[in-house]
Amino acid sequence: MTTPARTTLRSPGMRPSRRVLLVLIMWGLVAVMTWCCLFPELGLPIGNAAAPPMLLGFLFLVVWIIVLLQISHKVPYGVAGILLILGWLAGLLVASAAADLYATRTLQPTSATVVAIHERDDSPIPTDFRFDDGSVHRGVWSGVTGCGRADCPYERLPVGTRVEVGRDPLDAIPPRGPLPPEGSPLNAVLLGLSAPILIGTSLSVIFRRRSLLQRSDAETEADKARTGG
After folding, report:
1. Is residue 110 within 8 Å of residue 123, measured between CB atoms?
2. Which of 29, 103, 144, 211 suits 63 as a labelling partner, its CA being 20 to 30 A distant?
3. Per residue in 201-223, pLDDT tens?
4. How many CB atoms lie within 10 A of CB 106?
5. Angle between helix 16-38 and 186-207 (nearest 10)
């Protein structure tokens, strides 16, 4: 009678210091995406003016895949597959929600006049606002209008329209509007739902004994041993 080959986990895998570095790189990308949401490049004709740049989103996805390969070997493959999508979205949501939450707590409601808009497809509209002190600052207007079944086009304010936007007292953060309803918990809820996914995965990577990648390699070796391959 042949004894079935056991699935062993012999490889030491990635060193703890490198796993910590990997997690720090992941959170560093989240921080950079948050920064880009707070300080969007409003002079470009492409890209979403209120979301992380596409390149950063792609880089985060690549790093996230590497992170998932280093989570605990006890995590089922199906759960890891779900985390692949949820974790990537969570990273984008953490960045945008944290930026919006910080902005709404920092920016002060201020009346302004629209003096110019800058067309950009499928994005909040970069808009120049003139404030009552005579200064003009380019910001973002993310109001929507005429929502149909398929989309909600962003509102293009006519020049001369008086609006209320959030303005940074130091004029460091670009003004943005329309202001969310007072006391709106949306960004806090998004942050509360998304951040635990990244935090839990980070802890699994740092403190696990064996990784999902090691488990996969060991199972492959065991299959080869059973089949004589």
Report:
1. no
2. 103
3. 999 999 988 888 788 777 677 76
4. 15
5. 160
